[in-house]
Amino acid sequence: MASEPALRVIMRRLRDIMAEPGDGQTRLDKIVRQIAGVMVAEVCSIYLKRRDGSLELYASEGLKREAVHATRLNRNEGLVGRCAEQAAPINEPDAQSHPAFSYRPETGEEAYHSMLAVPVSRAGQVAGVLVVQNHTRRDYAEEDVEVLQATAMVVAELLSSGGVAGSEADIELSRAASAVIEGQGLAEGVALGHAVLHEPRIVVSVLLSEDTGLELSRLEVALERLRGSIDEMLAHERLSAAGEHRDVLEAYRMFAHDRGWHHRLRSAVQDGLTAEAAVERVQNSTRARMLRQIDPFWSERLRDLDDLSDRLLRILTGRADEHGQRANLPDDTILIARTMGPAELLDYDRTKLRGLVVEDGSAQSHVAIVAKALGIAAIGQAHRIVEHVSDGEAVIVDSETGEVHLRPSSDVIAAFQDKVRFRAKRQQRFRSLRELPAVTSDGRRIELLLNAGMLVDLPHLEESGGEGIGLFRTELQFMLSERLPRLKRQTEAYQSVLEQAKGLPVVFRTLDIGGDKVLPYLDRLPEENPAMGWRALRMSLDRPALFRTQVRALLRAHDGRPLSLMVPMLTTAMEMDAVRVLIDKELEHARRHGYALPATLSIGAMLEVPSLLFELESLMQKTDFISIGSNDLMQFLFAVDRTSAQVSRRYDDLSPAPLRALRSVFDAAAKHQVPVTVCGEMAGRPLEAMALIGLGCKSLSMAASSIGPVKAMVRSLPAAQLKQELAKWLDEPDCNVRATLAAFAEQHGVEI
Fold first, then answer.
1. Structural domain total, the chain
2. Could you tell me if 383 and 247 lie in one domain?
3. Range of the domain at 119
4. Residues 419 and 450 in one domain
5. Active site residue 735
6. pLDDT tens digits, 354-411
7. DSSP labels for 563-622?
């Protein structure tokens, strides 16, 4: 078993090897020889990744000499390939009996049973695999794994610094190569720009220390600063405004004060690593152990540890103060993040944002909705993209294909520039429709409205040709504020919206907070399913002062102008009675104090909860208008978390069940002459909007970028004929409505 002093011996010898003259191959040969000797291994080998993803045996002590440069493993082939693909250690006491073992007779490795393989990686990119083997069956101890991981870090540094330059093998040793990451389109568009990491990664460049005492001192000072900063976070309310949840901070503090973590860091420094390299080594070894755990609890703790380690690295490198502060953004910023909420996105200079790429998220998540409102291309589910890109690198985002091109070649850039120009011409055509009415080919008038939530959205109203604002999300003002906005501030904000709308109608939605829209200055209990928990109207009715203050501000802002007020997350028709009682109190308050009242007051309900589908008669009698929030309605109809990529695309909005549900709403509204608008994502997609019109919808509200394409569809649509055909399709038991709609559009020349 390798001991801790063994690592110090390896580090010292590696430092000497790296300082010696000679080519890269000679250095690698010496490295494997030294590792084998110190770790008492019969075999030590280095496999390096080629550009095609295969692994080449590049140096070995113990295997047959003729196998070096001759043995290549395909992607994910054998235990070595699996180690590279999973970027995690593999420890097998009897490798030959493992089903993934790949027998290569030219190596002579059939004589060796036990195998320990660790990835050679730098900044998240796997460049190869470092392997030790022994004749005897043995389960390598954790100390052995850590020794080999630390050694692999030094090998990776040698490779990335050009230590094997001039070799004949086409080896993938740096992050300079072009790459394509596949994801899921969140907001339409194509963007060319330069990467800005939401949480910039620290790349450790100096691994071996010259003065162990100095490095220990630096580590202790940094740990003390880290502990102090996290304790301060928990002690001050202001931190909540930065989006740090208390339970997460408690996890951070637990790790920050963990003696075992401190001991491992100090041991790594004593073994000859710099303080920064020690943090990276301990982080890598802990990550490897946690990734073997099935329990999702540990994956969350891994995120905590990664964040904590990054904070410690920033302190060590003198970059602690720049965390989260991005003052000097490039003019063509492509924002890259593991995860991001809508408020975090809005913290950035919107004039410089061109695209967004996140590792999670779905098309219905609120950050996607905000991205659409900002008019930036966005992609989610870009697996591990943060590990594959660095600040300032060229990036292309193509949300149509869901592809992110990293470090693209000049030919790829030129191709996408042509694509951008084509899209610009297409957009120019849509702009030519701006002054034309949204009337179907058979004369049916369709109202096209804009979804908005910020003042920056409002110029899009005129640019897009929208006929008003069908949904103004008032919560974004609250989310961007460090404290609860007072009455005066709310009133001024609503007045600004009305002024910029220039007389066009505006429907204000009352606070829809909860779920992934958290106000950090409001105390909330943790919930297992926040989307179905204490949010929106439920919170407003439980905190009537909050609701009444907003209503009061809206009443004062309108001052003789028509007011359309919509409440979200209505669950039962009777809740409208409670809403009207609170609004009536504010009307009475305004009359009593001599404030001017709105010219008219319309109170509407968002239909998002399926229970209302069974109360349509009562609902239509209690409300002045209906707005269908298709995002949440579909989420609840299908029992699908709209933020979960695993299930968000599992069900189709255009399947018979939801369309039949929507048809019942339009039929009831027509009977009671109650206006209905659809304002979810369905409204902004031409084919889905086409189906809604076929069901009887006369009003659609969407992102500004969607108005042009939807208007083009409307003006080419024979609505009456579609309505007849759609009614027949929905009565069929197993109709593929999406395919049938697409065929109808092609047959009748409908532009979708």
1. 4
2. no
3. 4-160
4. no
5. no
6. 999 998 776 666 677 778 777 789 998 888 788 778 888 899 999 888 899 988 877 7
7. EEEEES---STTHHHHHHHHHHHHHHHHHHTTPPPPS-EEEEEEE-SGGGGG-HHHHHHH
